[in-house]
Give the backbone structure.
Amino acid sequence: MNFANEFSMSIITLEDFYSTTSRLIPDGINKEIGHFNVFKIDDTIMQMRKTQVMPYNRRAYYKISLICGRNRAEYADKVIEIEKNALLFATPKIPYNYVGQDDVQSGYFCIFTQDFLLQAKSGVVLDDLPIFQPGGYPVFTLSDEEVASFRQIFEKMYAELSSNYIYKYDLLRNYVMEVIHNGQKLQPVTALYSSHTASARVSSLFIELLERQFPIESPNQKLSLRTAKDYADRLSVHVNHLNKVIKENTGKTTTSIISNRVVQEAKILLKQTDWTISEIAYSLGFEQVAHFSNFFRKQTALAPLAYRS
């Protein structure tokens, strides 16, 4: 990538996109309602391989991609290695591309213009949303459960686009906004930390991401992030880098901070609920009760039942 030429790049138009993917622009779709379309990634990759590699450039449209497979995302001045699953938000303001690192690629992406969402009664201005603001971090690593949730929304889009329902574009706008809002929930808004150093910013994001998992309100709720690597993957940084900046900024290890917060929640659940030890262990991310008991005893010098009594 040549970041120095970032602002002198040409802009890839909708016509360019359809040309490189060997697809026809749908007749009339962008005349009154703005433009919207949704695609399966594996289908589109096959078409693009016949023409060219996805270019690093600006687009004249917004794009949200649910990517399943190993990829390297190049977004503004960031290079992000995607090991498995990710959600990527792209705006016309910032150049980007992503390059597959293996032959197994799947998922969905949708493209749309500002005019498409302006047709909604809410009159959403995309550039006012944190997820599309420059300086943010719009690539999110997803768990298998999160992939399933987002995939379901994209599948609804894909099916609805070919339906004859007279209000289908209103429904599609709702689906797009559902993906946007769920995406914004995945990570704290980075704009809040624009004045911080890079390491302090990562540390702040880690702490807020940790706290967003609590309180545990149901035995069926389960912590999705349990280890330093889980948090590093979500923040798209190497686990060694995360450990280093957490130590520099807090004087504590990443693991100790996570453990302290988990045991704090365990104490609350033991004292304030009638859940079984097994239910508490499950909700805090322990697959076996014995592992939870050993963890709790190590942290408090008491067995869970002894603490409860």
User: Anything to note?
Assistant: The first strand starts at residue 11 and ends at 12. The CA atoms of residues 210 and 258 lie 7 Å apart.
